[in-house]
Fold beta-N-acetylhexosaminidase.
Amino acid sequence: MKHLLFTFFCLWLQNIVCAQPNIIPKPSHTLLAKGEWTMKEKTKISTPKDATWSHVGDMLASQLSRATGMKITKVKEKADIDFAVSNDESLGEEGYKLSCTSKGVVIQARTAKGAFYGMQTLLQMLPAEVFSPAIVSGVKWSVPLATITDIPRYSYRGLMLDVGRHFMPVEFVKKYIDLIALHKQNQFHWHLTDDQGWRIEIKKYPQLTTIGSNRSETMKGHYTEAKYDGKPYGGFYTQDQIKEIVKYAADRFVNVIPEIEMPGHALAALAAYPNLGNNPDKIYKVGTKWGVYSEVFMPREETLQFLENVLSEVIELFPGKYIHIGGDECPKTQWKESRFAQELIKKQNLKDEHGLQSYVIRRIDKFITAKGRRMIGWDEILEGGLSPNATVMSWQGIQGAITAAKENHDVIMTPTTHMYFDYYQADAKTQPLAIGGFVDIAKTYSFEPTPQVLSQEQGKHILGVQGNAWTEYMSTPAYVEYMVFPRAVAVAEVGWTSKENKNFDDFDRRLQIHKKRLDYLGVNYYGAPINSKF
Ligand code: TNX
C-alpha cells in the first residue's frame, strides 16, 4: 500500500514538474526527467554520412529553420541534435531511441527510416508552432528532458485514397503523404481506377485516359437523389507525375501501393476499350452514378493480356513490393449470360462464376509473382479459393481475415466497421454528405487488428491496419481532409502503439494538442476552428 501511494505520488510529481510530451502515436516507453533543453541560434544537426540519413537531417533542418527563423544547419562534426546508427537489434527496421538531455538530442536507430520516426517524435516534443509554414516569433523552442524507446506494433500502417471517384490534384496527394509520414505510417494505397474514372496514364493504351478519365456529368448529392449538372468531369496523372509522387513518398519513407481494379469496377476501362467487355460492339460510358456496375472485364485472352500489359507499366512506375488488383464487388451476371464465359468455366473445370473470378486472380497473381512482386486484393479474392501468393485486404468484417490468416496468407485489416472514413463521424444532421453508417473516432480507436481466435503463429499474418477514404461524396481535398482527420490519427495509433499502451482518454487528451499541429499544417479536420467550404 505504501509502495502504491509512493508510486502515485511520483507520477503526480512527474506530471507537475515535467512537461508531458504529447506524442501521437504513443511511443512504447517514455521516461521523463525534470527540465528541458532549448534550441538556440547555434543549434546544429549531425547525421551519419550515408545519403538517406543525411536526407533525414536535411528535412529536419529545413522544417526547424522554416518555423523558428533560425538558420539550423547540418554539420559534419557531432552536433547538439545528433543522429546516430544503433546496433541494438531490438529496435528492428523502424524503431528508434531518442534521448534529450541538457546537452541536446540524440536519435539512434538501425535504419534511416527509424531515424525519420525519431525526427517526427522530436518535432512533436517541440511546441506545436514548429509545424508552422512561416516563422513564428516569441516561442521558446524547448524539448522536455526524456528518454524514449519506440518500436511499432505492426509493420503495415496505411491510408487509402480513392481518386477514381473524384480526382485529387498532385499537390494534395503530396499533402496526404506528408500526413501519413507525420503519423509514422508507411503505406499510401492509391486507388487509381474505378467505374467512374481511370486516373493513371498507360502509354500502350492512351484511350484509358483520353476517354476513361472523363465522365460526361458531375453529380452532386446522395446517389438516390443525385443531381447532374451536365458539366464534364475528369483528371488523371501522367507517368511523370506518378514518378514524382513515388519519389516524394520514398523521401518520407512511405511506400506507394497502386491499385488497378479487376475484374469488376471496370467501366471506365471498357468505355476506352469496349473489346475488353462482354459486348465489344457496345458503347460503354464512364460511370456517372455511384454504386456497383454490372459491366465487368470479360476474361478473354486479349483482356487478360491487356491487364498484364497495364500491370507491366504499373510495375515499372511503382518500385514497392505490393501491387493491388482490387478484386472486390465483381457482379457475375454478365459472366452467367456469356457463352464465352460459360465455355471457359467448363474448359478450365471451374465450379462456377466464382471459380472464374478465382481463375482471373490466379493468372494475375502468377504474372505479378513472376515479376518479383506480391499481389494484394480485397476480401473477395477469397472467392473460389485464394491464389497462392496473395495478401488479403480485409474490408467486409474480420471473417475473411481469419480465413486467410488460417491459410497462411498475409492480411491487412481495414474493416468498414472501424476504418471507413466515408461513414459519418458525428450526427449526420451536422455533417456533410457521407455514404451512411457511423464510425466515430472512439470506434476507430477501439479497433483491435489481431482477431483473438488466431493462434500466435497465425496472428503473425496480420501485417497491420489501414484507413480508407472512398471519395464518392468527397469531391474536394478539403472534403477529404474533413472526413479523414482526425480519425486517421486514431488509425495511426492503432497501427503503431502496443495494445497495453492504448487508452482512449489519454489519446483524446493528446489529440487536442495534436490538433494545434494540424492547424499549423492547414488540415481541414472535423472540429477544426475554421472549416473551409467543400
Ligand atoms: C465498397 S470497400 C467498395 C467501394 C466503395 C465503398 C463505399 C471496397 C473494396 N469496395 O467501391 O466506394 O464500398 O463505402
Remarks:
- The chain has a mean pLDDT of 95.
- The chain has 18 helices and 23 strands.
